[in-house]
Amino acid sequence: MQDIIVQKYGGTSVGTVARIRNVARRITRQRKKGFRLVVVVSAMAGETDRLIELAHAVNPLPTPREMDMIVSTGEQVSIALLAMALHAQKCDAVSMTGAQVGITTDSAFTRARIVDINTKTIRKQLHEHGVVIVAGFQGKDTAGDITTLGRGGSDLSAVALAAVLKAAKCEIYTDVDGIYTANPRIVKNAKKLKRISYTEMMEMASLGAKVMHNRSVMFAKKYNVQLEVRSSLNNNPGTIIMKEMKEMEKVAVTGVTISKSEARVTIHSIPDKPGIAAKIFTALAHAGINVDVITQTTGADRKSSISFTVAANDVARTKKVMSTVNVKMKGIVDYDDNIGIISLIGTGMRMHHGVASKMFDALARAGINIEMITTSEIRISCIINQKDLTKAANIIHKTFQLDKRKQ
Amino acid sequence: MQDIIVQKYGGTSVGTVARIRNVARRITRQRKKGFRLVVVVSAMAGETDRLIELAHAVNPLPTPREMDMIVSTGEQVSIALLAMALHAQKCDAVSMTGAQVGITTDSAFTRARIVDINTKTIRKQLHEHGVVIVAGFQGKDTAGDITTLGRGGSDLSAVALAAVLKAAKCEIYTDVDGIYTANPRIVKNAKKLKRISYTEMMEMASLGAKVMHNRSVMFAKKYNVQLEVRSSLNNNPGTIIMKEMKEMEKVAVTGVTISKSEARVTIHSIPDKPGIAAKIFTALAHAGINVDVITQTTGADRKSSISFTVAANDVARTKKVMSTVNVKMKGIVDYDDNIGIISLIGTGMRMHHGVASKMFDALARAGINIEMITTSEIRISCIINQKDLTKAANIIHKTFQLDKRKQ
Fold first, then answer.
1. Is A52 on the interface with B (CB under 8 A)?
2. CATH H-level, domain A4-175: superfamily
3. Domain A245-407 class?
4. CB contact under 8 A, B84 and A59
5. pTM
6. What is the rounded CA–CA span in Å between residue A262 and residue B169?
7. Which end of chain A is more exposed for a tag (fewer CB within 10 A), N or C?
8. ipTM
9. What is the mean pLDDT of residues B153-174?
């Protein structure tokens, strides 16, 4: 049997007729090398937004089930077009919707979870045609209703198919070349990484490197699917995301990320009694609001102050929750959306001491004030003023010699 | 159990957000009267053409399977939007694709035939939600591939669902008020018919009254589904299409139709030997070309001449076939696309004598030359010069007092 490769092309890669032809050429080339290919595609860039707009014009609050019904047509159009483009290049191929592939999900419309993939039909089609084009981002529940997987869903479709089909690898084609030591638009000397571990990638992804969604990386880690992130617009090698290897620990730091999309909430002058923090964070969790960095201090007056960060677009909902929680504790609530987070990530941190102090020192020398700090096993994050983010990223990148990193 | 009504709305009726809301209001009104509703919708006007154009931009000759994959998304968008519009009007409803409904077809992509409808799921949804919105024009084959039913497919979906669900009736909403004694744009005094038999409707449909496709009427006749053709833009009663009743025969003539979309082919000076006609019409049949009116004459020189009409857009293919057939018979082949067909239709013709002579006489008095004639049990058609069609339609309409017809 020929090896199976799973490829995934995002909306930009299939955004125009010319780009669809370009993707078809890539597939044809791989096919001629003797691989069998499962190709997962997203909707053409802009198409999903067009459909959502149409839905909202009819009903400002459409039911999630009907949203999935309409939005899933975007990928269905892409798969047919890509199959047609392959046929025009004399490459056999057949398209399949998520439901046809047998991607079974739960019934959480617009954010469904994959529960099972029946590989019988796709294996048969793969055997007959050599190339199967699959609509990403979608599946069906056990009642036969069409579901979508939410943000990053097409990546997840690709990783899940790679896992169940035991593919040799899963290539994620996007509009960037791979994963960099920092965002090249912010840090001029950012270097592309040849390899990165799943865990590092997850820390990178959740902190602003918007290349891949965490759900997919987590899934890939669980099933040990080797990922490669690369560009559909050139032939440069990308970045391989794989399981951690001993030699990765030789390097203390893998990358720097920054994020502007968080806001800080502070509640001052509340009684320093046990259970206050629990009350706040339970209420936020019930509302589905994710809290990132948390700090708590107690002043000389025995009054406490708690600060935490939430995603900037959760601020409105956070205000609502806080106004309810605060009725009894009578604190003063402040919101600051002028903050930024700079993070340093690296598997090697576990082995190398002094990374944190080196980071704090570098920021201090540059006159950048650190407002909050949080750390995990392989990450150190500092909350600073948003206006200092670019400067901080460049300084930290240089301090840890990421610009001198060999691929 | 509440009575089931099947409704079908064409592309114009759901062509804009405002029209979708309008359709939702109609449905809500019927629902409040206590009916359960199965509503079949087409793609929004223009959407199917947009998808076909996109496909052709990628591949000038797309495979029928992939065409059905892309084109079927048009109806899927409509059903979701209509369900959302109903929810906005507080009317419960759920959308279903052809595949989800369980409309099983053969695998003749782009022109599939319905072979079975499993009513289990749709009955369940109808019981739970009261209103089920079904994507017309589509189904799936036994392999699970998406198929489409070809021209007039949405009507067919509606009629077939009405048949299997034993619906009280099947309402076909379109942009005309119903079936008229003649095309009101051609004959000023044309009257809307209250009722018409399936057979009459089939003769009308195939001869230029483009309201409903023959396949659907034939299907309705077979399963005795009562149809009503009416407008989605007003509340006027439409025309009921039903099985023939004794009293229908009291009226000799039901309607007049004209058609410009045919061309005449004549082959002169061929030897008058048996089997010539058979040879010609077998070859045309093999090429899938439908022949309508046929006449054959033999001159004093023992040479024959055969004339027949084909659809104007089949002329190119007919020329090809004729050039092959004619190699041996060495006739002279003429094409005339300047012809028109005027037809008189009525179940009562069987009982009333003199209808044909009255028609010929009226045309003669008006100085209109009849070039060919053909008749069936309930129809008389004359081929005349295209420029005389409007005049002829008005004269015949008046001669048979169709303008005085009571609804």
1. no
2. Acetylglutamate kinase-like (3.40.1160.10)
3. alpha beta
4. yes
5. 0.84
6. 58
7. N
8. 0.83
9. 96
